[in-house]
Structures are given as C-alpha cells and as structure tokens.
Amino acid sequence: MTSSTTDPEKGMTEEQLERLLATEIENALTFIHSSDLIAAQRDRNYDYYRGVMDDVPAARGRSRVTDRTVATFVNMMLPGLLRVFTAGRDIAEYEPTGAEDEDLARFVTRYVNDVVFRKDNRGELILYQWAFDALVQKVGVVKAWWQEQHDFKDETFADLTEPEYLLLVHDAELRGDEVTAHSTNTKASPPTHSLTIRRTINRSRVRVENVPPEEFVIDRDARTLEDAILVSHRTYRRAGDLLAEGYAQSVIDELPSYTEHRATRVTDYDERWRGPTGNDPVDPMLREIAVHEGIVRCDYDGEGVREWYFVAGGGDGKVKVLKMEPYDHQIVFAEFCPNPLPHIFWGRCPADDLAEIQKVNTVLIRQMLDNLYLSNTPQREVVQDWIIKPDQLLNLAPGAPVLVKQPGAIREINIPFTAASALQAVQYFESVAENRSGVSRQAAGLDPDALQNQSATAASLAYSASVGKLEMVARIWAHGGMRKLFRGILNILVRYQDFERVVRMDGRARAVDPRDWAAFSDMDVTVNTGLGTGARERDMAFLAMVLQQQKEIVEVLGLDNPIVGPRQFVNTLHKAAEAAGITNPQAFFRDPGDWVPQGQIPRGPTPAGNQPQPQMPARPVPIRTPMATPAGPLGQQG
Q: What global pTM score does this model have?
C-alpha cells in the first residue's frame, strides 16, 4: 500500500483504515439499494424511458402498448439544455486574478475548452450522457483524472559516421530515449554505425469520464460532495488490468473475486444475460474484482484534523487498500442534479415526476385501443344450429359469404365507443406533464398549431414561460457541477502535466506548458449560459443591437475611447457567429491579441509579465533517413 508518512502511535493502522472504508461503503450501498427513493426509482425511470413497464402488466389478448411520456419529455429537454453550453466556442471561461493575467486566463480558457475537453475527450458526448443521467436517474456524475500514457516508436539508422552516431546518442540521452540496438561496421573506412532508438512519446492527458449512477458511492449522511466522508467510483476490473496499472501481483492475488449477482444497463436488455459474472475463468488475469477509487476524509495521521486522502481499495465486505495518498486532485468528481432538494444529496429529476403520468397514460391508451379494436371488429352472437358451415366464422375474409339456414343466425354485439373520453384524459395528463417538466411542445417546435390565434405578445410570454424551467436547470448545472469540473481540470493540469505540449488551437500551433500556471491554479471559473437559452434569432438580434451601440460609441468618442476597443468588437462578432451556429468564429474574425510574426510558434502567455520562457532543447534533425521504422509496442504507465 502506498501511503503518507504517519506516526504509528497516533495514526490509523492499515487494518483500521480498511475497516473504516468497508463500513462506509457498506452503509452507503445499503442506504442506496434499500431505500425506495433512490435505486428503485432510478431503475424504474430507466425502464420507463425504454418503454419497459413490468409493473403495468397487459391482460392476455389485449393491447400491450406502453406510453413514452418520460422519453418524450427528456428528449425534448436534452437539445435545449445542451445548446446552452455547446452553442458557443467556450463552455467555461477562467477569470484572471489580476489585470496583468488577462492574456493568461484567455489562453488557459482556449486550451482547456478546445484541446482538453473537446479533442482529448469527447466533450459533447460527455455532456449528453451527464445530462441524460441527471434527467432520468436523479444525479449525473463525471470524474476527471490524469492518465499516464506513453507510446513507443522504434527508429533504425544505418551507415552513420562517428559524429552522426554521437549526435543521435546525445539526442537520445537528452530526451530520455533508449538505444535498443547498436552495431559497428569495422570493415568500412572509416567505420560506420547502425543503431535502433526507441522513442518515447508522452501521450499523458486529462481524462474525463461519466460515472454510471449504479457505480457511484457516497456516504449516506452526505449533503454535498464537499461535506462527504467518502466519495467513490465502484468499478469491476480484471486482475490483468490492475497488474498493468502497477499494483503488485501479491496484493492482487489477495483480493477476492466478485461473484455477486449484478445486472448492468447493457445486460438489462436481455434477461438471459442476468446472473452471476462467471468469475472462474481459465485465465486468472481475467478474474473480476470489485475496485473502489475515490477520496475519503479521516484523521489518518492522528493529528486531530480530518483531511482528504485519495484511496484505492479492492473487494467488497472486506476491503484491501491498494493505494493511499494525501489528496492532490488525483481524481475530481462533479455532480449535477436538475431538481436538488435542500439538505440532501439525492434530489429529484424530471423522470420522477413523469413516471406516474406515463403509468396512467399507459392504462388509458390500452383501454382506448381495446375499445377501438372491439368497435371496429365486434364480437358476434351466433345460433350455432343455424350455421351450415361453422368454419366460415373462424376464417372470415373481407366480403366472404357465410351460409346460414335462416336469417338472424348471426348478430353483432355492439360495443359503445368510449375511446374519445380516454383520449381527452390522455390529453389532460399531457398538459400535467408539461406543467411538471416545465417543457411544452410549442417550445420544442413540435406543435405547429399550438400558437394559432394568439397575439405576438401572448406567444412570446408562452415561449418564455416554457424555457424558464430549462434556464433554471442550466444555471444549476453551470454553477454547480460544470464549475467544479473545469476548476478540477485546471488543478490536474497544473499538478500533473510536467512537459511542454504543442497543439493546434485556432488553426495555429501553440506550445503549452501548465507548469507556468502553478501560481494561478485557483483561478475561478465562469460557465457561459447567457446565450443559447432562448431562440437563436433573439440572441442574434440582441448582439446586432450591441454591435450597433459599439459603433456609435466609436463614432462619438473615437478609437481610443475607454469603453469599446478592438477586443470588444471581436468578442461581439464571435458571439454573433456562435449564435448562428458557427463553432469556429476565429476563422472569420481574428483575435487582435493573438497575432504573431509568420513562421513562429507562439507560446502560451506566462504569468511573469508575459515574458517568454526558455525553450526546450530542440531535437537534432536526423542525418540519415531511417532505413526502417517498424511500429513499436504500445506502453502505458499508470
């Protein structure tokens, strides 16, 4: 176990720590799964979204149709909610700590939004899954961490002179590359060298990942992530994966296999796959183990102060500690609950409010369809002795005759048509669903007749009311989980990216070294929710008005006025382009502060007066073209 230095007389022993973890995990899981308000409702909401309603069984021979109210309204809310954050170029902006740090804050904003979130991670998909979990399963959770990854590439050089050989070896030593093969041709005059160098390519990145709701663990008494005792991601890992991440084989062998019955979202689609995990594989490296990775708050060093620690443990019931370190942003959790309740972590979600309506509508729609079926194909009253060929009644074809001995042998039983009443009830409950969710069909553009015979003012008021709920949910997300995530990403970059990285931003190569930002890791974050919450036309009209006012100020006060400068003009033009759906407005309007002489690679701004930092030693250009460049094995360090 990796742990901080503690006083053995005052600090906790490893056994005490393992007992603490096991107790908190067991209490948390018991609370989540034994309460009808959390796990049971999450499972029901997810089943209802997929149209699976086992709690409303259909009668034999009757309609089996299920209503999809939960899916309908969740799917209406998702596009508008995501557009609030993805319509613009930057989801979040870092705020400078001083006026001299504005360029640095702007550069960090571009790097985190464009490279870390969108290129290194599938940012839009992460936001979609995050919002989906929150809208359907009460709370959506994401985690961010630093993932060490190194790729290797072998380069072979032949017929090198002595100076060329020494230059390449010196270059390899500077870069930490390994010379894997070397030979000297002494028959040549002068002697020549051949060698193979294994280049190490550092592809370590900040990783962001959605945490499935059933794998998220938080202590039962927590009100927020900040006051929790334990926050953990409970996963199921193969023994070989743990070994590849650097855990000792002896420790892994002590961990018990996970043999409990469990069902994931994937296996829920097919009951045949439910059941035990089959944890008796031929290959012991495929053995499945329950692993907890997260943070715990305890007085581990015996100083009388509870502090945060990063901890990784394996096993259920009895937990074996795999790693224990003082918390330094090894992992960052961020949560989003669309309808938080005071003084409790587990709030409510739209699916909670819509599930009851879907249940009622399912019963009404089935009754309506059954009545319609019976009205269109009514039952018959038959005098059996008056029918010449009874088989004709069982195989009726359209227009086919039925031979009878005398009239009146067959009479239809009229079924009153009551489906209209059921349809009115369904429409009533749809309006209830709109009121509960705060999303109306006219706001989603689904009902072209919804605003007929209404004045422009009435239509505008109806539209504004319909998007009010989404605006509130978006602001809860922005000021809560989204802000935590982007602050956590900055802290992870500053603490763990210890190398310079050249990336493309705004169409140009940029050198990024977060070690220059160490003094500014506590920069605050503002998540952009100003535009995108309403109609795109409204946003563009507002920006056009702002641009016109900026022009008037320049005409009256001149270019050197203290209110509007080139930066403000470009900001307005960028926002207008983003409101129109253009994700790269810099292709049309260049940032006036980013211009550099052609042919240079601009570095990111530095805190010390934006002075350039010493450059890393450049790699010498190889003298010879590699004779062969076979693909080296991929390596990963955890």
A: 0.79
